[in-house]
Every structure is written in structure tokens, then in C-alpha cells.
Protein 1
Amino acid sequence: MRRALVVLLLGAGACQAKEAHQPLPEGPFGLGRTPTEEEVAAWNTSVNPTGKNLPAGQGSVAEGKVVFAAKCAACHGDAGQGMPPTYPQLVGKEPADFSFDDDFKKAHTIGNYWPYATTLYDYINRAMPLTAPGSLTPPEIYAVVAYLLAANGVIAEDAVMNAMTLPQVKMPARDRFVADDRGGETFR
Amino acid sequence: MTRPPDDAAREGDISRRALLASAASIAGAVTLGAQPYRLLAQGPAAAAATDTTAVVVPPDPTAVPGMVTTARGIRSPFVHPERAPAGVLSGASYAPLQNMSGTITPSDLFFERIHNGVAMVDPQQWKLMIHGMVERPLMIDLEQLLRYPSVTRTYFVECSGNGRAAYRTPKPEMTPQQVDGLLSTAEWTGVPLATLFREAGVKPGAKWFIAEGGDAARLSRSIPMEKALDDALLVWGQNGEALRPSNGYPVRLLLPGFEGNTSIKWVRRLELSDQPNMSKDETSKYTDPIPGSKARQFSFLMDVKSVITSPAYPQQLTERGWWPIRGLAWTGRGRIAKVEVSTDGGRSWQQARLEGNNLPLAPVRFEQMWKWGGSPAILLSRATDQTGAVQPTRTEFQKARGIGPDYHFSYIRGWTVGRDGVVQYGVEA
């Protein structure tokens, strides 16, 4: 009894991370249905570094140059120089040493900052071009990805991107990212 | 007595007979199908009429009858809080912190951060798919989601880019809105993600879930499974009504204490996975370069922070005497432990009074009465949270993180007060 009271007082006096709430019923409630395979396939387009969900098809650097000029250059510039801050710069090797901490004006480009090549496919497929997201075909996306990687000096001019080759591309900034270690009494 | 600056500046605009016809044209254009949810159905047909009611400000309100009842509330014609800037398609609008009292943000003033426009979603078409490493993939519609047990919680949402302009391009003529207006707070109602994940059955090895929005950006973030089982919510209610479209109507993810972009709006897909997706917005963006040629990734938690909202630009202290120093303090790591205020640029600090309920993962108001004697002053606030984390000075901030951060601008900011009582932004401790 006395111990319980002490615990209670400690609990009330200490700075609690959470509020106390009455527990919710846990279920199961059985609300909802199983999605069809078609429904899963239609929405499940996420491409992670393993290349999961990359579709058939392929694209070359030369093909990508044409697609980029037609679909991307209006915002990102004819050479991927962008119109910051709204339309980011896509091409640029400097700073090659990832020294972004000393100057916020240094542009984070595909070549100097992006850690995974598969992210290009994932993002262009889901969100680009801004005025008609989802309108590019897989070969067009592969081609634009190839063009951007070549323009950043990451792959050769004669490379072809597809479901096999894209996940194998190692990005210059691949090993620059670390876990979040903020918090605690020492400011980090 | 002074009025809030926004109102003072605009008082001249108000005539005795101001006609408000604001939403009438918009309301006429909205057509929605029959909606099965009483809370979500605001009845567009009934909306328009009263928004055209003439607002009359008589010389003596006790001498004539007042206005009739209206279908929706209006603000006083003397009050004009506004988000800014309007008209952005891919970017942000800031909440007018200087015009707000308490801690809740009115829903129509809640800051916006959009990556390709505000999606307009038909609630009858909305579906949520939970799939990947689950025992029973689930497709849930809105009516079904609303039948799950719900909770109501007050949490802030802050964009991790909040404070960027004040850091990179500080100007004396910056308002609290421009300095820190990508912070807002609401009372949210929704279903714990843990409930739905239990329903779907989390498979062993599922360490992450990938959340995707149903907007034109299909914004996608990977979140550690621990957050889903801790306090993550799928919310459909905001401050007593349905979510506003710019907050993700009909349903958004709400991850308390995490940087705002992870609380995916218009959420439609949750995929459980053994690894993060490494999407654009968790690699190219929303990562933090630090000294040593590295960058922090998955830096979800918002640091402890505070901002003085009054006195602040464009206010002017009109006379010597007592003035309250008021502001907001918040942390992504639980509760605020204390807020200290300095009126001499950080040479001395006094502990301010924390007002009202000090809820975890919600801002708390602080207030310190200050007797201004007419001398120049520098007003600063410094918050400490329950983990012992303290807001750093700008020097300490840059020493730890370099001068090139893109996000998480949590250092001490302040305001100068001149002999003339003019208050300006631009002094950091």
C-alpha cells in the first residue's frame, strides 16, 4: 500500500512523456476487405534499392536526352541546371567531398547528394513531370534516369538502364548518410 | 491598450458598413455527392446564404438590434488573420502566429506545406490499402475507418524547414509568422495505427512502413515500425470537424513530434517492409548535412524550440510600463520542462510562467510580465524539454551542425526593442 502510494506520487510528480488515457478495445473488428491483386499492383509502385517493382523496359542516355528536352527541361533547364529554389538543380558534381555543412548555397544534386539510383525511378514515376505526374512510360522513365545519371558522370554515355542495371548503379554519395543521433543534454 | 499588430495595421480599411461576400461564389461552385457521414457532410446546399449577410458596425451596438444567426461563423470585421503567401502550388503558406492566442491553430489558418497542390479527394472514392509484410492485406473505406475505436489528442505539426528564411535571410521586418509560421496545432481525432496494423497482422521482420499520399506528389516516407505501435494515428477529425483539404481530407497520417512531412496527407497506402524505400523525400530532401562530410538521415524528431510571439515585429510599445512577453514552446520529445526569458540579450534569464495544460507533443504558452523602462532591450526565449535538451545559441547550433543546415532550425531567436518602442527581428543569442 505504502509502496503503491509512493509509486503513484512519483508518477504524478515526474515529468511524464505521455498522458494517461483509458485503454482502447483491441479488436479484431473485421472491418475492411482483402484488396485484389489488381488493386495492389495499381498502387504499389514503390521502388526501393533492391529494384523491387521495377517494370520491364529500358532506356538509353541518348533516348533520355530527347525525353528530358521535351518533358523536363522547361523547369529543370536544358542541362539540368534547374531554377532554384522551386525547380531544383539536378546536375552537378561539386562539392565532390560532400562538404555541404559549410555553405547552404551548395546545391544538392543527383550526382553529389542522392545515395540511391533507384530513387530516381521511384520519384519520376510517382511525381514527375509536375504538370502531368504518372504520364511517362517505363521506357521514358528509364531513359530520363539514364540521361540524368550520365549527365552527373555516374554512368557511361552508352549505358542502358533497366530493372537489372539500375539497382547496380552505385551513387557517389552512397556512404554519406548516418543515423540520427540528436537529443539529450548535449546539443548535436 | 494596444491591438494585435495585424488588426492595428488594417483598422483603416474597415468602414462602418463592411460587406462580406467572401465565400458565396466559391460555395456556389462546389458540388458533392451524398455523403454517408454526418460529421463529414457539411451540406454544401445550405452553406451559401448567410455568408452574404451584410456586416454592420453601428455607432452604438446597444442602441440597435444586432445581426441574425448565421450558418457559419464569421470573424469580426476588425480581425484579419491570414496565412501567407497564398497562391503557392509547391511550397508553403505560414500561419500568423502573432494573431493567435492559446495553443490551438484555427483550422483555416493551419500552415500548409504542399508538394504539388492541395488534393481534392471525394470521400466516397477514398480507400486505404495496408499491404506488404502483413498476414491479411486490408482495403478500408472511410465508413469502415470511422467505425474503428477512436482517440482525440492535441498535437503540434511543424515543418522541419520552419525557420529557414529567418536563418538564411534574416530581416528586421520579419514577423513571428515569417520566422516560425510553419508550426500549427490541432485537436486531432482518429484511429491508432496500431489498431489497424493489429487488424492486418504484422509479420515478423516488418521493421518499417511506407506511407504514401493520394496527391499529385504521391508523397512517400518510410517510418520505423516502433512509431506505428507507439502513438501514430490515422486522423479524420481536426478541431471538431472534418480535416481541411490542405490537411489531407479525408484522412491523414499524424506522427506526433515527427517532422511534418512524415504525417502524410490524403494517405492511401501503407506498405509494411523490412527496409525503408529510400524515397526522394528521405534522401535528396529532409536529410541534414553535418560537419565531417556526412548527413543525418531519418532525422524525424523535432528539436526543443520556442518563439516569442509578442512583443514582436511589427508591434510597437506605445508607452513605458508593464508588457507581457508571450510565446510558444514545444518539443518533439515530450513535454516542455521550462522556458526562460531574457530582456538583456542573454546576460540574465528569468524563468517564465507556463500557462495552462502542458501536454506532451503539444506547444505550451509561456508568459513573463516585463516592466519596460524605455531603454533598448533584446528579448530572447530559451526552452528546455523533459529530456534535458536545451535550445542552443546560434553559435552553438552552427558549431554542432555547420552553417549549411536545410532543416531543424532550433536555435534561440530574439527581438530588439528600440528607445522608440519599435520591435524588430534579427538578433540571435
Note: Chain A has six helices and three strands.
Protein 2
Amino acid sequence: MLHEVLRFWVHVALLVGVVAITASSAVMADEPVIQITAKKFEYSLRTLTLKKGVPVVLELTALDRVHGFNLPDFGVRTDVVPGKVTRIRFTPDKTGEFVFFCDVFCGEGHEEMSGVLTVTD
Amino acid sequence: MDNKIDRRQFLKLTGLGGVVFASGLSGWAHAAKKSGQDEFYFVQLSDTHWGFNGPKVNPDAANTLKKAVAAVNALEQAPDFVVFTGDLTHTTDDPKLRRARMAEFRDIVSALKIKEVRFMPGEHDASLDRGEAYQEFFGKLNYTFDHKGVHFIVLDNVSDPGASIGEVQLAWLKQDLKQMRQDAPIVVLTHRPLFDLYPQWDWATRDGAAAIELLMPYKNVTVFYGHIHQEHHHQTGHIAHHAAQSLIFPLPVAGSVPKRAPLPWDPEQPYKGIGFRSVEADVKDAYYKIAERPMAKG
């Protein structure tokens, strides 16, 4: 019984550790960081070029209202909230051109709020 | 007046220049068994975007909805009901203008001779104020109704600006489905595709898979929706999904061009890609025959 209880708490500890790493907003020193702001109805970067296999951190914030950032080809999406920096860490694993767009309906020009990510070898 | 029609008559009414598409588990194999009972038809209009202004895309935008109403009224046999699957109005940041457009839309469609008219919102109607103005004019965002043995479920996947159905509504759907037999004919009406048609163009519902999972145990489910401004047919397992054309402008086929943008108006073929559809329902076999009705002449 004692063994089972101990094993349970080890699992809990491991789980907490995993969650902590995933939710960490810290940026490692050698990671490229790209800052993007969002406002009606554009991102500060309309085009973005990254290297395949090179991890990157996107730092997103909104200037006016809640927007979204969706890069479906890489399974990346987040809300982008005023007054808060949202960090997304991902590694492009394929080359090509991929659209990113706002997926939180934000007004008359919402459907124009998009950009293109180019991933090169 | 009873609106029962036979198959030949329906084709005569709806097939002129259009495409007839059959959907359902039984398909044409059962056509010979039809008795003419338990049949009805309805008309689906979608994405009318009242208030849109873009002469290069639709120089007749101020008249398109009125012409569609006239076309429905001119049907030789009246449908049992008409349903608008969202984006009744074109979005605006101005709440007063939003309400003015909704009032104008409501006035125009009040000319429909068919008195049973069902509405649901699109993101253009409801995403900026979580459906507040929409509800003032058209009522609930999600609801059910029954018609001649078919259970219709109207799902709202737009009043959340992030295009989610949401846990509350999913729980409501689960509860509603609990009362249904597993072989009951069920039709879901919604605006966005419930499946990932093309997420790169936001043609999806964020938690649409959860709704499909709830519907999956039911054998006879068909989904009619709008949003993508073109006819489209897709299966998720045994569930058929049918997107309707728009009544303002067509959009390109998913992924066919780099950017999702309205297709330009073709003066040689006015109204090309714009239209509505008729749906003949055979209740007994949960079988639907769809006839596209283009607004283009010739």
C-alpha cells in the first residue's frame, strides 16, 4: 500500500514537472525570438521566413482587442490578448509557404488579417 | 394545402439548369419504393450578406436578396419552409448599422410567401457582439424543431468569435440527442462546416469534432451549412455535410488560389456561382435530394 501511494505521488510530481515546462514563458538564450503585434486588421509582420528544423519563439501581443494567431499547417494557434505577451515555441518541420491568420472575428476587416510564413531549407 | 409532391414533379420544379445531388443511406436504390407519403421539401438560402458593397464582386448587391425572395415565391409548388443558414447581413463595426441591416433584411424576407422561415446566425451577424443584435431580430441562436418526423437541430458555431460551439451548447446537444432513437432522421443546420474543410481559410469549427462525435451514434444524420459560398459535399463516416452557394458572391475552391477572396463578377455570366437550393426530404429513408438553383440566367 505504501509503495502504491509513493508511486502515485511520484507520478503527480512528474506530471506537474511536465506541465511546468510546457507552460514556461521563459526564452532560452540561444533561441531566435520574433515579436509580432496584432491590431485591427493586420499583424506587424505580413511575411515571416524561418529555417526548417530551427526552433523559434514567437512573442505575440495585441494592441487593441483580442485577436487570434492560427498557423494550422503546424498546429499552432493562440489567442493574442492586449497587455499580455503570449509565447509560442515551435520548430518548422517542412518547407514551403503557409498562411497564418486571425481566427478570432475582430471586425469589418477581419478576413484580411493574415500573413505568410515561408520555411526554407 | 398539403405540400406532398412526387419525385418527377420535384425534378420538374427544381432541376431546371441545376444539379441534383442525392444524399442519404438509402440512395436511389429505394426510389421505387416511395409511396409519396412522408415527403416534403424545403429551401436553403445562405450567406446573403445584406449590406455588402463591392461592385466588382456583385454590382447588383442591392437587389440580389430581393431577386432570391422573388425566385422562391415563384416556385411552382411552395416549399414547406425556408431556412437561412447564416451571414444574413454583412458585418459592420457599427452596432447601429448592424441593426439597421438586420431590420432591412427582415423587411425584405418578410415578402416570402412561405410563412415558416427559419434563421440562424453567421459570424458576420453575431461574432462581434456574441449574437446580441441577432437575437433582438431573429430569436434564439440555437434551437430545435420537428417537421414531419425529421428532427432539425440548429447549431450556433459563430456567436463565439473564436468559432467554437462551446461546452454549454454541446451539453445541450447531448441532452437533446438523448431523447432520439438511434435511427431517427436528424438534420443539423449550421453556418460553418463542422469538420475541418480547410482550416487555412478558417473553414472549420474549432470544436466541431465534438459535435460530430455526439451525432455519430445516430444512423441518419445530415448536415446543411453555408459559410464557404459554394456547393460542397463531404462525408464524416456516415454523416453527410452539404454546403450551399451564397446569395451575394462565390468564393474559390479551397486551396485553389493563395488567398481566399470573392470571385469577380463576370459580366458575360451575371450571377454565376450565386444561388440557393431545394432539398427534398424522404422521411422514411432519411434520404435527401438536393437541387441547386442558380440565379444565373441561361
Note: Residues 97 and 118 of chain A are 4 Å apart (CA to CA).
